[in-house]
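Q: My labmate handed me this sequence with no annotations at all. I'd like to see what the chain might look like in three dimensions before we decide whether it's worth expressing. Could you predict it?
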Amino acid sequence: MTMTETSPGQKEAEEGAIMRVLVAADGSQPAVDACRMLARPLPAGSDVRLLTVLSFSTYPYSLIGGHLSDESERAETAKREAARMQAEAREILEKAGFEVSVVHRFGYAPDEIISELEEYGADMVVLGHRNLHAPARWASSVSDRVIHRSKTPVLLVA
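A: Here is what I predict for the chain of 158 residues:
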């Protein structure tokens, strides 16, 4: 499920953008480092989409119909959490001169990243890697799951 936000002054991606890049940002230092690294070689005019995947525990709407009594409060909380997770990455990319579109999705991170990648039609997906110890890394790594499922090149920054 997707919730898209447009910031003031944000414009649609220019036609003929050199590259469409999906950046998955979870607020971690590796995700921020990935944005710093990406900002240097990325061609001017590239279309950058910053994606944050939030847990369904923060999903603000009822999944079975009707309305939740605290729906508006939950929606604001989800919006703030996503903005917090994306803030530093967004700032780095915008300071580098890129127009950044922002998307928030709810669900299982690898599935949502792959879905957004396919819907957006990106030329590349960029992920930070947390360098977990081997057993934990192989059991639960979002980046490993995206790498194995993506039909698009993946830039993994550790």
